[in-house]
Amino acid sequence: MYKQIHKELKSHAPFTLFGAITGILIIVFFQRIPSEVSYKIFYILHPIHVVLSAFVTASMYKLHKCERISGKCIRGKCNLWILLIIGYIGSIGIATISDSIIPYL
């Protein structure tokens, strides 16, 4: 299991670094926009972020847990309700921690 975690972290590190640098650059370029504009942008982009997070969380679960033959997922063998619950809990849980709790620590 630790080998798999190390492999995943190693392969995703470049994307994480790119995302972090991109976020910092966006903050630098848009730091002077009026608070009313940033407020509206937040309430447009944040729901998109939550939906994409749920989609990726459910996709990762399906990728690693659903039955496969020769690397291809067997249709109908991955419970849709479980995927929806995993996506919802994973997204809402992570989004709540990262957006509502961590900023105040």
Features:
105 residues, mainly alpha, 2 domains, 3 helices, 2 strands
Describe the structure.
The longest helix has 31 residues, at 35-65. The chain is mainly α and 105 residues long. The protein has two domains: 1-32; 34-100. The radius of gyration is 17 Å and the shape is extended. α2 packs antiparallel against α3 (80-101). It contains three helices and two strands; from the N terminus they run ααββα. Strands 1-2 form a two-stranded antiparallel sheet.
Short note summarizing the structure:
The chain has 105 residues and is mainly alpha-helical.
In terms of topology, how is this protein built?
Elements: H1 2-29, H2 35-65, E1 68-69, E2 72-73, H3 80-101
Antiparallel strand pairs: 1-2
Helix content: over 70%
Low-confidence stretches: none
Which structural class do the helices and strands define?
A: mainly alpha
Strand order of the largest sheet: 1-2
